[in-house]
Amino acid sequence: MSADRAPRVELVLSSAGYCIHPEFVTLRGGSWRSAVYPAGFACIRHPSEGWILFDTGYSPRFPELTKSLPYSLYRRITPVRIAGEQTAVRRLAELGIGARDVRYVILSHFHADHIGGARDFPSSRFLYSGAGYDAVRSLGPVGATRAGFVAGLLPDGFSGQATPIERMSAPVALTDDVPFQEGRDLFGDGSLIAIGLPGHAAGQFGLLLSTAENRVLLCADASWSSRALRENRPPHPIAGIAMYDRKAYADTFERLRRWQAADPGLVVVPSHCREFYDPEGKEPRRL
Question: What is the pLDDT of residues 181-217, one digit of tens each?
C-alpha cells in the first residue's frame, strides 16, 4: 500500500521517568554539566488495531532490580529518577487508557529504559526484533549489564506473548527518498513501517507513521536529540563504550541526518529528546 493511502493514526508522546548524563556524552561539543533525558514512549491509536505502545520507559522495578552488583553499576553510571505515578501505565490512565486497552507493545530494543514498564501490560501482545532479543536473552549478569539489559523487567513468559517482527511481516521496499533499503509493514496496511536503525543496540528499529498532521519517524536511540541531527553533532566517542556497533551507529546517524535535511516535512522523534518529551511526563504531546 502506498504511503498516501495508508491509514492515519493518532500519536501521543509521553515519558516514564528520566536519566541524567553529562550533555557532552550525547552531543558532540556539549556542556560538561549534567542534563536530563526523558525515557519517552509513544502511544499510537490505530483505526482498526486500537491502542499500541512504542516502548514503555522506566518503572520502579528498575531501581529495585539494580540494587546489587553487577547491575548496580548500570544505575550508578546512569542515575535514574522514576516514581510510581510516572510510569507509562499511570500516564495512560490519565488519558483514559487502561492497560487492557493496549493491544500491542512494540519494543524498539531491549535497553532497560525502553522495556522498564513492560510488566504493566500483561494482556498486550509484544512485538520485537528477533535479532535484538537473541543478542541478550542468554547473557549472564555481567554481559547483560554491559548490554543495558535487565531480564526481570520483561513479563514472565515473555516468549509466549511476544512475536518477532521478522515473523509477522515481510520486508517492503521504501521510497527512493528514504536512505534505508527496506522496512517491515507491521499490519500490512502501510500504517506502521518498522525500519532497522542499527548500531545503538542489537536489532534496534524505529517506526515510520503518519498522523492527520505529520509524517513521523520514531527513531528510538539512533540519536539522543533532534538538535544533534540538525547540527550534525553525534555523540562523543566515549558513548561508543555502551554501543552495540559504533560503526553502524555512525552510519545510521548520518543517514538520519541526511534524511531529515532533505525532507523538512518529516518529524524525527528521538526517544530522549526534550523537544518532544516532558521529563516529568506531565505534559503529553500530540503530533
Answer: 899 999 999 999 999 999 999 999 999 999 999 999 9
Q: Write b or e for each residue in 132-147: b if 16 or more Cβ atoms lie within 10 A of its Cβ, otherwise e.
A: bbebbeeeeeeebbeb
* pLDDT tens sequence across 217-260: 999 999 999 999 999 999 999 998 889 999 999 999 999 999 99
Tell me the three-class secondary structure of the chain, residue by residue: CCHHHCCCCEEEEEEEEEEEEEHHHHCCCCCCCEEEEEEEEEEEEECCCEEEEECCCCCCHHHHHCCCCCHHHHHHHCCEECCHHHCHHHHHHHCCCCHHHEEEEECCCCCHHHHCCHHHCCCCEEEECHHHHHHHCCCCHHHHHHCCCCHHHCCCCHHHHEEEHHHHCCEEECCCCCCCCEEEECCCCCCCEEEECCCCCCCCEEEEEECCCCEEEEEECCCCCHHHHHCCCCCCHHHHHHCCCHHHHHHHHHHHHHHHHHCCCEEEEECCCCCCCCCCCCCCEEC
Strands 80-81 and 50-54: unpaired
Q: For residue 82, give the C-alpha cell.
A: 522514576
Beta strand pairing status for 193-196 and 205-210? antiparallel
pLDDT digits over 131-142, tens only?
999 999 999 999
Round to whole Å and give the CA distance between 17 and 83. 7
- The pLDDT value recorded for residue 1 is 47
Is residue 2's pLDDT more than 80?
no
AA identity, residue 82: I
Distance, in Å, from the CA atom of 17 to the CA atom of 46, rounded to the nearest integer, reads: 26
> What are the residues facing 54 on neighbouring strands?
42, 106
- The pair phi, psi for residue 158, each rounded to 5°, is -55, -45
